[in-house]
Amino acid sequence: MGFEKFGRRSFTSQTKVAPFVDYLEKGELRGTRCKSCGKQYFPPRADCAACLSNEMEWYKIEGPGTLISFTRAGFAPTGFEEDVPYTLALVDFNGTKVFGRLEKDIPEAEVSVGMQLKVTPCTLSNGQLSYEFVK
Amino acid sequence: MPKDVAIIGVGQSTFYRGYQGSIKELAFEAFREAMQDAGIGAADIGASIVCSAPEYDSQRSPSGIIAEYLGLNPQPTFAIESVCSASTSGLRAAYALVKSGLHDVVLVLGFQKMSEISSADSQERMGRGADIMWESPFGTMMPACYAMHASAHFAKYGSTEKDLAMIRVKSTKYGAINEKAVYRKELTLEDALAAPVVTSPLKKFDCCANADGASCVIVASKDKAKEISKKPVWFMGLGAATASMTLTGRDNLYAIACAKKAAQEAYAMAGISPQDIDVAEVHDCFTIAELLAYEALGFAEPGKGVELIRDGQTYIGGKIPVNVDGGLLSKGHPIGATGGSQVRTIVMQLREEAGAMQVPGAEIGLVHNIGGVGVYGNVIILGR
Fold first, then answer.
1. Fewer CB atoms inside 10 A, N or C side of chain A?
2. How far is it, in rounded angstroms, from Cα B131 to Cα A44?
């Protein structure tokens, strides 16, 4: 339990990486790193596909990152209608790629592939925890 | 590549916006046409493979009820699913079953009645096509994930919204002459560019429509094909590959890696190169997907795919005619049926039975069918 607190709308509650949400609450975005072979994962995982270990530690992801791509969504699946329009984005933080949304206040005209962004945890209007990309 | 496994029959229902019948009746439309095409009876079929995306089915375990309705008991039947590429995944299994000698004739039935569920239910399922832990909580949907590929391709190579609109214009030209297509109206470049944005940079006409439909492909061994078929079409190469479902696991978003790998495998198995392909069916669920296919399949170098559409080289008469049946954009995209419909088009091309859509003298054809946003890639090369 615990993971249901992540995102505008959560689809699952049970995962071994639920401490991700506790870190978000403390203002940190973290991925997992395999203690055995050192492979880093984001999204965080409980198991290492490279060496089969399940001994993981949490590492912090910090900016600046580079915008790989984005789209401004004009319609949404069930549960996200109120948020339209919103900009989905993929950002690279030193080789760790993170999927999420851009902060609403960034004007559309200022968004371009290659721009520098930071990531910051946030609390959504419905009380859920998430993170967003900011300038 | 020895000619030892053949396609001896193909069929497709009309693709509908909303089919007024059951999934069994929809499946039967494609089945009847394929069986009549092959000139065989139900007793000749050794096994059936039923392909659909189950989240749209009210019927649980549809292979059982469909095999029953098609009169294919007591032969074995089972389901294969890889979302939008389900029926070419089914065809890959059919090839293996025949090649192994386990069965002489295997039938692949792909179907989808997307209107089986309400549009509210459809909206609900739409968000769960991405990783439900790490992507869906942000409000993802397939058009958005393909739109992110378009933004990345634009930034990397300078391709434009106009290039994508040109792909849709080509699609509508051929959709207009395909009597089984949902979308039969020709569009101008201006129409395509003026359409409202769905998810930037993709506009309304950059996206294919949901549809109801069925397809059927009958596969046979060499001996059986020679015994019963006057016009077998032969498997020359098959390739299949996957990529991470989460976009964070991709090397980049300006190419579809699984399609490239599947194509390389298929070309190697067939012992041919992209220049040898006379006609291709590619998975154009979105206009950007067709552009990415040109590059993944080696019809153009990375970043040069736009030149093919700008020069009209993917029309009939061009260097490599692509989707001259209207593609998914005009035919509609009934998920589980799509791959089989693409295969049907290529089989008809190679038999020179494609009518107004015929590419003169086509001897080798290619099918590129992608499941999810570049998650599952199937490429199949067929020859006379």
1. N
2. 13
Could you give the CA distance from residue B233 to residue B67 in angstroms, rounded to a whole number? 25
DSSP per residue over B121-141, as a string? HHHHHHGGGS-TTTTGGG---
Taking the CB of residue B18, how many other CB atoms lie within 10 A of it?
11
* Polymer length of chain A: 135
Pairing mode, strands B233-242 and B279-281: unpaired
Residue ranges in chain B assigned as alpha helix (H) = 23-38, 62-69, 86-99, 119-126, 142-157, 161-175, 189-194, 222-228, 257-270, 287-296, 305-310, 327-331, 338-350
Which residues of A are less than 8 Å from B150 in CB distance? 71
Q: Write out pLDDT tens, residues B15-52.
A: 999 999 999 999 999 999 999 999 999 999 999 999 99
Q: Has residue B1 got a pLDDT over 70?
A: no
Q: How far is CA B384 from the centre of its chain?
A: 20
Q: Is A74 within 8 Å of B196 when comparing Cβ atoms?
A: yes
In this prediction, residues B163-167 reach a mean pLDDT of: 98
**A40-41 β-sheet, strand order:** A40-41, A30-34, A56-60
Give B325→chain A minimum CA distance, Å.
Answer: 30
Rounded Cα distance, B108 and B116, in Å:
21
Interface test with chain B among A69, A115, A119, A131, by most B beta carbons within 10 Å: A69
List pLDDT tens digits, range B301-325: 999 999 999 999 999 999 999 999 9
Check A88 against B138: CB less than 8 A apart. Answer: yes
Find tokens 């978003």 and name the residue: B253
Asked whether B279 and B359 are in contact (CB, 8 A), the reply is yes
pLDDT in tens, A92-115: 999 999 999 999 999 999 999 999
Measured CA to CA in angstroms, residue B170 lies from B36, B310, B371 at distances of: 32, 11, 23
Interface check B202 vs A, CB under 8 A: yes
Nearest by CB to residue A100, choosing from B127, B138, B144, is B138
pLDDT digits (tens, 9 = 90+) for B329-344: 999 999 999 999 999 9
Give the pLDDT confidence score for residue B46 in this predicted structure.
Answer: 98
Under a CB-based contact definition with an 8 Å cutoff, are residues B44 and B61 in contact? no
Using CB atoms within 10 Å of the CB of residue A121, give its burial: 0 to 12 exposed, 13 to 18 middle, 19+ buried: middle
Q: How many helices (H) and strands (E) does chain B have?
A: 13, 11
B164 Cα to chain A: minimum distance (Å):
16
Q: What is the CA radius of gyration of chain A?
A: 15
Integer CA distances (angstroms), A97 to A64, A77, B336, in order: 12, 24, 32
Cα B369 from Cα A125, distance rounded (Å): 41
